[in-house]
Amino acid sequence: MLMPSFRKHWNVCASDIARKTHNPIRSIVENIVVEPNPNKKVIALSIGDPTTFGNLIPPKEVVEAVQDSVASQLYNGYAPSTGHEMAREAVAEYSSNEFVKVNSKDVILCSGCSCALDLCITVLAREGQNILIPRPGFSIYRTLAEGLGITVKTYNLCPELGWEIDLDDLKEQIDESTAAIIINNPSNPCGSVFRRDHILDILDIAAHYYVPIIADEIYEHMVFPGRTFHSLASLSTEVPILSCSGLTKRFLVPGWRMGWIIIHDRQNVLEAEIRKGLQCLSQRIIGSNTIIQGALPKILRNTPQKFFDDVINTLYSHSKLAYNSIIKIPGLKPIMPDGAMYMMVYIDLQCFPEFNSDVEFVQRLLMEESVFCLPGQCFGCHSYMRLVITVPSDMLEEACQRIQEFCERHHYKTAKISRKNGFVNKILY
Ligand SMILES: *Cc1c(COP(=O)(O)O)cnc(C)c1O
Protein backbone atom coordinates (compact mmCIF):
# COMPACT_ATOMS: atom_id res chain seq x y z
CA MET A 1 0.00 0.00 0.00
CA LEU A 2 1.62 3.27 -1.15
CA MET A 3 0.80 6.68 0.32
CA PRO A 4 -0.31 9.31 -2.24
CA SER A 5 2.80 10.91 -3.72
CA PHE A 6 3.68 14.50 -2.71
CA ARG A 7 5.24 14.88 -6.18
CA LYS A 8 3.20 14.82 -9.35
CA HIS A 9 6.04 14.42 -11.86
CA TRP A 10 9.80 14.02 -12.17
CA ASN A 11 11.70 17.13 -11.16
CA VAL A 12 15.32 16.23 -10.53
CA CYS A 13 17.46 19.35 -10.60
CA ALA A 14 21.08 20.11 -9.72
CA SER A 15 21.98 21.39 -6.26
CA ASP A 16 23.12 24.94 -5.58
CA ILE A 17 26.68 23.73 -5.10
CA ALA A 18 26.66 22.01 -8.48
CA ARG A 19 25.20 25.10 -10.13
CA LYS A 20 27.60 27.51 -8.51
CA THR A 21 30.68 25.43 -9.29
CA HIS A 22 32.29 26.22 -12.57
CA ASN A 23 35.73 26.50 -14.04
CA PRO A 24 36.27 29.83 -15.81
CA ILE A 25 38.86 28.26 -18.12
CA ARG A 26 36.28 25.79 -19.36
CA SER A 27 33.69 28.44 -20.11
CA ILE A 28 36.17 30.69 -21.94
CA VAL A 29 37.78 27.86 -23.89
CA GLU A 30 34.42 26.32 -24.82
CA ASN A 31 33.44 29.63 -26.38
CA ILE A 32 36.38 29.36 -28.73
CA VAL A 33 34.59 27.51 -31.48
CA VAL A 34 36.99 28.05 -34.38
CA GLU A 35 38.75 25.14 -36.03
CA PRO A 36 42.53 24.97 -36.31
CA ASN A 37 44.08 25.40 -39.75
CA PRO A 38 43.76 21.92 -41.33
CA ASN A 39 47.06 22.36 -43.18
CA LYS A 40 49.10 22.86 -40.02
CA LYS A 41 49.67 20.41 -37.23
CA VAL A 42 48.14 21.65 -33.98
CA ILE A 43 50.58 22.78 -31.31
CA ALA A 44 48.84 23.14 -27.96
CA LEU A 45 50.74 25.51 -25.71
CA SER A 46 47.68 25.51 -23.50
CA ILE A 47 47.80 22.24 -21.59
CA GLY A 48 49.20 22.52 -18.07
CA ASP A 49 50.10 18.83 -17.99
CA PRO A 50 53.84 18.24 -18.43
CA THR A 51 53.33 14.62 -19.49
CA THR A 52 51.26 15.42 -22.60
CA PHE A 53 54.07 15.10 -25.15
CA GLY A 54 56.11 12.31 -23.59
CA ASN A 55 59.31 14.38 -23.41
CA LEU A 56 59.11 14.73 -19.64
CA ILE A 57 58.72 11.54 -17.65
CA PRO A 58 59.27 10.60 -14.00
CA PRO A 59 62.56 8.90 -13.06
CA LYS A 60 62.82 5.12 -12.81
CA GLU A 61 63.18 5.30 -9.01
CA VAL A 62 59.68 6.77 -8.82
CA VAL A 63 58.14 4.25 -11.21
CA GLU A 64 59.80 1.35 -9.38
CA ALA A 65 58.58 2.64 -6.03
CA VAL A 66 55.01 2.36 -7.29
CA GLN A 67 55.63 -1.09 -8.79
CA ASP A 68 57.01 -2.25 -5.43
CA SER A 69 54.04 -0.75 -3.64
CA VAL A 70 51.57 -2.67 -5.81
CA ALA A 71 53.58 -5.91 -5.61
CA SER A 72 53.84 -5.77 -1.82
CA GLN A 73 50.03 -6.19 -1.50
CA LEU A 74 50.34 -4.04 1.61
CA TYR A 75 48.40 -1.09 0.23
CA ASN A 76 45.19 -2.58 -1.09
CA GLY A 77 43.13 -1.59 1.89
CA TYR A 78 41.83 1.67 3.34
CA ALA A 79 44.31 3.94 5.03
CA PRO A 80 43.44 6.40 7.79
CA SER A 81 41.68 9.26 5.95
CA THR A 82 44.65 11.61 6.51
CA GLY A 83 47.08 8.97 5.22
CA HIS A 84 49.32 6.16 6.43
CA GLU A 85 51.71 7.27 9.16
CA MET A 86 54.85 6.23 7.25
CA ALA A 87 53.73 8.20 4.19
CA ARG A 88 52.99 11.29 6.29
CA GLU A 89 56.36 10.90 7.97
CA ALA A 90 58.05 10.86 4.57
CA VAL A 91 56.26 14.07 3.60
CA ALA A 92 57.20 15.66 6.94
CA GLU A 93 60.85 14.79 6.35
CA TYR A 94 60.74 15.98 2.71
CA SER A 95 59.21 19.29 3.78
CA SER A 96 61.52 19.98 6.72
CA ASN A 97 64.63 22.12 6.42
CA GLU A 98 66.88 24.16 8.66
CA PHE A 99 64.06 26.70 9.22
CA VAL A 100 61.00 24.48 9.52
CA LYS A 101 60.60 21.16 11.27
CA VAL A 102 57.44 19.42 10.14
CA ASN A 103 55.88 16.72 12.26
CA SER A 104 53.90 13.89 10.67
CA LYS A 105 50.85 14.88 12.74
CA ASP A 106 50.82 18.17 10.79
CA VAL A 107 50.57 16.40 7.44
CA ILE A 108 47.31 15.50 5.70
CA LEU A 109 47.54 13.54 2.47
CA CYS A 110 45.03 14.50 -0.19
CA SER A 111 43.95 13.53 -3.65
CA GLY A 112 46.24 15.97 -5.45
CA CYS A 113 47.01 19.54 -4.53
CA SER A 114 43.55 20.65 -5.71
CA CYS A 115 41.96 18.53 -3.03
CA ALA A 116 44.40 19.99 -0.49
CA LEU A 117 43.29 23.49 -1.51
CA ASP A 118 39.66 22.42 -1.34
CA LEU A 119 40.04 21.22 2.24
CA CYS A 120 41.91 24.37 3.29
CA ILE A 121 39.36 26.74 1.78
CA THR A 122 36.48 24.71 3.18
CA VAL A 123 37.90 24.55 6.69
CA LEU A 124 38.74 28.26 6.92
CA ALA A 125 35.92 30.03 5.11
CA ARG A 126 32.18 30.05 5.68
CA GLU A 127 29.45 30.96 3.22
CA GLY A 128 29.30 34.75 3.04
CA GLN A 129 32.96 35.22 3.96
CA ASN A 130 35.62 35.96 1.37
CA ILE A 131 39.04 34.73 0.39
CA LEU A 132 41.67 36.71 -1.50
CA ILE A 133 43.27 35.23 -4.59
CA PRO A 134 45.94 36.53 -6.98
CA ARG A 135 45.16 38.14 -10.33
CA PRO A 136 46.38 36.78 -12.65
CA GLY A 137 45.88 33.49 -10.89
CA PHE A 138 44.99 29.85 -11.20
CA SER A 139 41.26 29.42 -11.65
CA ILE A 140 40.69 26.53 -9.28
CA TYR A 141 40.57 28.78 -6.22
CA ARG A 142 37.50 30.47 -7.64
CA THR A 143 35.94 27.18 -8.72
CA LEU A 144 36.33 25.72 -5.23
CA ALA A 145 35.26 28.78 -3.26
CA GLU A 146 32.29 29.97 -5.28
CA GLY A 147 30.72 26.54 -5.24
CA LEU A 148 30.60 26.84 -1.46
CA GLY A 149 29.11 30.33 -1.52
CA ILE A 150 32.40 31.92 -0.50
CA THR A 151 33.10 35.24 -2.19
CA VAL A 152 36.35 35.60 -4.10
CA LYS A 153 38.21 38.90 -4.14
CA THR A 154 41.34 39.39 -6.18
CA TYR A 155 44.55 41.25 -5.43
CA ASN A 156 46.76 42.37 -8.28
CA LEU A 157 50.17 41.13 -9.28
CA CYS A 158 52.42 43.70 -11.00
CA PRO A 159 53.91 42.54 -14.31
CA GLU A 160 56.46 45.36 -14.29
CA LEU A 161 57.76 44.11 -10.93
CA GLY A 162 58.19 40.50 -11.97
CA TRP A 163 54.59 39.77 -10.92
CA GLU A 164 55.12 40.73 -7.29
CA ILE A 165 51.98 41.35 -5.30
CA ASP A 166 50.68 44.92 -5.24
CA LEU A 167 50.86 45.10 -1.45
CA ASP A 168 48.67 48.20 -1.17
CA ASP A 169 46.01 46.48 -3.18
CA LEU A 170 46.32 43.37 -1.02
CA LYS A 171 45.80 45.46 2.15
CA GLU A 172 42.84 47.23 0.59
CA GLN A 173 41.09 43.97 -0.20
CA ILE A 174 41.21 42.67 3.37
CA ASP A 175 38.02 43.25 5.33
CA GLU A 176 36.39 41.81 8.45
CA SER A 177 34.97 38.92 6.41
CA THR A 178 38.29 37.84 4.93
CA ALA A 179 38.87 34.25 5.97
CA ALA A 180 42.18 33.58 4.19
CA ILE A 181 44.69 34.85 1.67
CA ILE A 182 45.82 32.42 -1.01
CA ILE A 183 49.42 32.93 -2.11
CA ASN A 184 50.70 30.98 -5.10
CA ASN A 185 54.49 30.85 -5.31
CA PRO A 186 56.02 29.95 -7.77
CA SER A 187 53.09 31.09 -9.85
CA ASN A 188 50.83 29.58 -12.43
CA PRO A 189 50.32 31.38 -14.86
CA CYS A 190 53.16 33.88 -14.29
CA GLY A 191 56.17 31.66 -13.67
CA SER A 192 57.27 34.19 -11.05
CA VAL A 193 59.18 33.35 -7.88
CA PHE A 194 58.91 35.71 -4.90
CA ARG A 195 62.00 37.26 -3.33
CA ARG A 196 62.57 36.64 0.35
CA ASP A 197 61.88 40.28 1.25
CA HIS A 198 58.65 40.27 -0.65
CA ILE A 199 57.46 37.21 1.24
CA LEU A 200 58.34 38.90 4.52
CA ASP A 201 56.20 41.91 3.49
CA ILE A 202 53.29 39.61 2.67
CA LEU A 203 53.65 37.87 6.03
CA ASP A 204 53.68 41.25 7.82
CA ILE A 205 50.37 42.16 6.26
CA ALA A 206 48.81 38.81 7.17
CA ALA A 207 50.07 39.18 10.74
CA HIS A 208 48.88 42.78 11.05
CA TYR A 209 45.33 41.90 9.96
CA TYR A 210 45.32 38.45 11.59
CA VAL A 211 44.43 36.64 8.35
CA PRO A 212 45.73 33.08 7.87
CA ILE A 213 47.47 32.11 4.65
CA ILE A 214 46.83 29.22 2.30
CA ALA A 215 50.12 28.70 0.45
CA ASP A 216 49.79 26.99 -2.93
CA GLU A 217 53.36 25.78 -3.31
CA ILE A 218 52.79 22.99 -5.83
CA TYR A 219 55.77 24.40 -7.81
CA GLU A 220 58.06 24.43 -4.77
CA HIS A 221 61.75 24.05 -5.72
CA MET A 222 60.92 24.43 -9.43
CA VAL A 223 63.01 27.56 -9.88
CA PHE A 224 65.58 28.38 -12.51
CA PRO A 225 69.35 28.57 -11.88
CA GLY A 226 70.26 31.57 -9.74
CA ARG A 227 66.81 31.88 -8.13
CA THR A 228 65.86 30.59 -4.70
CA PHE A 229 62.55 29.21 -3.55
CA HIS A 230 61.51 30.36 -0.08
CA SER A 231 58.44 28.72 1.35
CA LEU A 232 56.10 31.03 3.21
CA ALA A 233 56.28 28.84 6.30
CA SER A 234 60.08 28.99 6.38
CA LEU A 235 59.91 32.77 6.90
CA SER A 236 57.09 33.10 9.37
CA THR A 237 56.99 32.65 13.09
CA GLU A 238 53.52 33.95 13.79
CA VAL A 239 51.18 33.66 10.81
CA PRO A 240 49.30 30.37 10.65
CA ILE A 241 49.91 28.85 7.23
CA LEU A 242 48.33 25.88 5.52
CA SER A 243 50.83 24.83 2.84
CA CYS A 244 49.59 22.81 -0.09
CA SER A 245 51.84 20.80 -2.36
CA GLY A 246 52.23 17.34 -3.82
CA LEU A 247 53.92 15.12 -6.37
CA THR A 248 52.04 16.45 -9.40
CA LYS A 249 54.37 18.97 -10.97
CA ARG A 250 57.82 18.38 -9.56
CA PHE A 251 57.67 14.61 -10.07
CA LEU A 252 55.74 14.88 -13.36
CA VAL A 253 52.83 12.66 -12.29
CA PRO A 254 49.61 14.72 -12.32
CA GLY A 255 47.43 11.65 -12.81
CA TRP A 256 48.65 9.99 -9.65
CA ARG A 257 46.61 12.40 -7.52
CA MET A 258 48.92 12.74 -4.55
CA GLY A 259 49.03 16.01 -2.71
CA TRP A 260 49.18 17.18 0.88
CA ILE A 261 48.52 19.90 3.38
CA ILE A 262 51.06 20.87 5.99
CA ILE A 263 49.72 22.73 8.98
CA HIS A 264 52.19 25.36 10.16
CA ASP A 265 50.98 26.87 13.38
CA ARG A 266 53.96 27.57 15.59
CA GLN A 267 52.13 29.92 17.95
CA ASN A 268 49.21 27.52 18.28
CA VAL A 269 46.71 30.15 17.24
CA LEU A 270 44.57 27.88 15.09
CA GLU A 271 41.66 26.57 17.08
CA ALA A 272 41.78 22.82 17.65
CA GLU A 273 38.67 22.92 15.51
CA ILE A 274 40.75 23.65 12.40
CA ARG A 275 42.92 20.58 12.78
CA LYS A 276 39.86 18.51 13.63
CA GLY A 277 37.97 20.07 10.74
CA LEU A 278 40.66 19.14 8.23
CA GLN A 279 40.60 15.62 9.57
CA CYS A 280 36.83 15.41 9.27
CA LEU A 281 36.86 16.90 5.78
CA SER A 282 39.48 14.37 4.70
CA GLN A 283 36.91 11.70 5.50
CA ARG A 284 34.66 12.90 2.72
CA ILE A 285 36.81 11.02 0.21
CA ILE A 286 38.08 8.42 2.71
CA GLY A 287 41.68 9.42 2.10
CA SER A 288 43.99 9.48 -0.90
CA ASN A 289 45.32 6.74 -3.18
CA THR A 290 47.01 4.11 -0.98
CA ILE A 291 49.27 2.64 -3.70
CA ILE A 292 50.97 6.01 -4.06
CA GLN A 293 51.06 6.39 -0.27
CA GLY A 294 52.92 3.08 -0.12
CA ALA A 295 55.42 4.41 -2.63
CA LEU A 296 55.84 7.87 -1.07
CA PRO A 297 58.77 7.13 1.24
CA LYS A 298 60.84 5.79 -1.67
CA ILE A 299 59.66 8.50 -4.07
CA LEU A 300 60.54 11.31 -1.70
CA ARG A 301 63.81 9.81 -0.45
CA ASN A 302 65.27 8.13 -3.53
CA THR A 303 64.60 10.50 -6.40
CA PRO A 304 68.05 11.59 -7.54
CA GLN A 305 68.82 15.31 -7.56
CA LYS A 306 69.91 14.89 -11.17
CA PHE A 307 66.31 14.24 -12.20
CA PHE A 308 65.16 17.54 -10.69
CA ASP A 309 68.13 19.38 -12.20
CA ASP A 310 67.46 17.96 -15.66
CA VAL A 311 63.81 18.99 -15.58
CA ILE A 312 64.74 22.50 -14.44
CA ASN A 313 67.40 22.81 -17.12
CA THR A 314 64.90 21.78 -19.77
CA LEU A 315 62.29 24.25 -18.54
CA TYR A 316 64.90 26.99 -18.29
CA SER A 317 66.24 26.42 -21.78
CA HIS A 318 62.70 26.26 -23.17
CA SER A 319 61.75 29.52 -21.55
CA LYS A 320 64.88 31.21 -22.91
CA LEU A 321 64.10 29.83 -26.34
CA ALA A 322 60.52 31.12 -26.24
CA TYR A 323 61.52 34.44 -24.68
CA ASN A 324 64.27 35.12 -27.20
CA SER A 325 61.98 34.45 -30.16
CA ILE A 326 58.95 36.28 -28.84
CA ILE A 327 60.82 39.39 -27.66
CA LYS A 328 61.58 40.04 -31.35
CA ILE A 329 57.94 39.94 -32.41
CA PRO A 330 56.37 43.36 -32.89
CA GLY A 331 53.36 43.84 -30.64
CA LEU A 332 54.22 41.11 -28.14
CA LYS A 333 56.13 41.39 -24.89
CA PRO A 334 57.10 38.16 -23.13
CA ILE A 335 57.86 38.21 -19.41
CA MET A 336 60.74 35.88 -18.61
CA PRO A 337 59.71 33.41 -15.91
CA ASP A 338 61.89 32.48 -12.92
CA GLY A 339 60.34 29.07 -12.37
CA ALA A 340 57.33 26.77 -12.81
CA MET A 341 56.26 25.81 -16.35
CA TYR A 342 54.66 28.87 -17.90
CA MET A 343 55.38 32.18 -19.56
CA MET A 344 53.02 35.14 -19.82
CA VAL A 345 53.13 37.21 -22.99
CA TYR A 346 51.67 40.70 -23.14
CA ILE A 347 49.66 41.39 -26.29
CA ASP A 348 49.71 45.07 -27.24
CA LEU A 349 46.24 45.06 -28.78
CA GLN A 350 46.76 48.56 -30.19
CA CYS A 351 49.19 46.95 -32.61
CA PHE A 352 46.55 44.50 -33.78
CA PRO A 353 43.49 46.57 -34.65
CA GLU A 354 41.61 43.53 -35.96
CA PHE A 355 41.37 42.03 -32.49
CA ASN A 356 39.40 43.46 -29.59
CA SER A 357 40.69 41.12 -26.92
CA ASP A 358 43.21 38.47 -25.99
CA VAL A 359 40.47 35.90 -26.61
CA GLU A 360 40.03 37.07 -30.20
CA PHE A 361 43.80 37.10 -30.66
CA VAL A 362 44.31 33.49 -29.53
CA GLN A 363 41.26 32.39 -31.46
CA ARG A 364 42.63 33.72 -34.76
CA LEU A 365 46.07 32.37 -33.92
CA LEU A 366 44.49 28.93 -33.61
CA MET A 367 42.49 29.36 -36.80
CA GLU A 368 45.40 30.48 -38.93
CA GLU A 369 48.46 28.88 -37.34
CA SER A 370 47.01 25.97 -35.35
CA VAL A 371 48.83 27.22 -32.26
CA PHE A 372 46.72 27.39 -29.13
CA CYS A 373 47.58 29.45 -26.05
CA LEU A 374 45.25 30.23 -23.18
CA PRO A 375 44.01 33.82 -23.16
CA GLY A 376 44.89 35.88 -20.08
CA GLN A 377 41.17 36.17 -19.34
CA CYS A 378 41.28 32.57 -18.12
CA PHE A 379 43.41 33.90 -15.28
CA GLY A 380 41.48 37.12 -14.77
CA CYS A 381 44.02 39.12 -16.75
CA HIS A 382 43.24 40.80 -20.08
CA SER A 383 45.70 41.43 -22.93
CA TYR A 384 47.93 38.49 -22.11
CA MET A 385 48.29 34.92 -23.21
CA ARG A 386 49.91 32.06 -21.31
CA LEU A 387 52.35 29.69 -22.95
CA VAL A 388 53.17 26.31 -21.47
CA ILE A 389 56.89 25.67 -21.87
CA THR A 390 56.93 21.93 -21.23
CA VAL A 391 56.34 21.05 -24.89
CA PRO A 392 59.33 19.58 -26.81
CA SER A 393 61.76 22.27 -27.97
CA ASP A 394 61.24 21.70 -31.71
CA MET A 395 57.51 22.19 -31.25
CA LEU A 396 58.08 25.26 -29.14
CA GLU A 397 60.39 26.69 -31.78
CA GLU A 398 57.89 25.97 -34.53
CA ALA A 399 55.10 27.54 -32.45
CA CYS A 400 57.12 30.72 -31.89
CA GLN A 401 57.86 30.91 -35.61
CA ARG A 402 54.17 30.64 -36.42
CA ILE A 403 53.26 33.23 -33.77
CA GLN A 404 55.79 35.57 -35.38
CA GLU A 405 54.32 35.12 -38.86
CA PHE A 406 50.84 35.63 -37.47
CA CYS A 407 51.80 38.83 -35.68
CA GLU A 408 53.58 40.23 -38.71
CA ARG A 409 50.56 39.51 -40.84
CA HIS A 410 48.22 41.30 -38.45
CA HIS A 411 50.39 44.10 -37.10
CA TYR A 412 49.04 47.42 -38.31
CA LYS A 413 52.48 48.71 -39.34
CA THR A 414 53.64 45.63 -41.19
CA ALA A 415 50.19 45.00 -42.58
CA LYS A 416 50.20 48.45 -44.17
CA ILE A 417 53.74 48.15 -45.52
CA SER A 418 53.21 44.68 -46.86
CA ARG A 419 50.17 45.90 -48.77
CA LYS A 420 52.16 48.79 -50.25
CA ASN A 421 55.23 46.77 -51.14
CA GLY A 422 53.42 43.63 -52.04
CA PHE A 423 55.37 41.37 -49.70
CA VAL A 424 55.38 40.60 -46.03
CA ASN A 425 58.35 42.36 -44.59
CA LYS A 426 59.93 41.57 -41.28
CA ILE A 427 59.61 45.04 -39.87
CA LEU A 428 60.66 45.32 -36.26
CA TYR A 429 60.01 48.40 -34.27
C1 LIG B 1 48.55 22.10 -11.23
C2 LIG B 1 48.23 23.02 -10.12
C3 LIG B 1 47.55 22.59 -8.97
C4 LIG B 1 46.83 21.26 -8.86
O1 LIG B 1 47.58 20.19 -8.78
P1 LIG B 1 46.95 18.74 -8.60
O2 LIG B 1 47.92 18.07 -7.69
O3 LIG B 1 46.92 18.14 -9.97
O4 LIG B 1 45.60 18.82 -8.02
C5 LIG B 1 47.36 23.49 -7.92
N1 LIG B 1 47.79 24.75 -8.01
C6 LIG B 1 48.40 25.22 -9.12
C7 LIG B 1 48.85 26.63 -9.14
C8 LIG B 1 48.64 24.38 -10.21
O5 LIG B 1 49.21 24.87 -11.31
TrEMBL record:
It is an enzyme of class 2 (transferase). The keyword Transferase applies. It comes from Atta cephalotes. Pathway: Amino-acid degradation; L-phenylalanine degradation; acetoacetate and fumarate from L-phenylalanine: step 2/6. Transmembrane segments: none annotated. This is Tyrosine aminotransferase. The keyword Cell division does not apply. Its cofactor is pyridoxal 5'-phosphate. InterPro entries: Aminotransferase_I/II_large, NHTrfase_class1_PyrdxlP-BS, PyrdxlP-dep_Trfase, PyrdxlP-dep_Trfase_major, PyrdxlP-dep_Trfase_small, TyrNic_aminoTrfase, Tyrosine_aminoTrfase. It comes from the Eukaryota. Keywords: Aminotransferase, Phenylalanine catabolism, Pyridoxal phosphate, Transferase, Tyrosine catabolism. Belongs to the class-I pyridoxal-phosphate-dependent aminotransferase family. It catalyses: L-tyrosine + 2-oxoglutarate = 3-(4-hydroxyphenyl)pyruvate + L-glutamate. The gene is 105623421. The modification N6-(pyridoxal phosphate)lysine is found at K249. PROSITE patterns: AA_TRANSFER_CLASS_1 (PS00105).
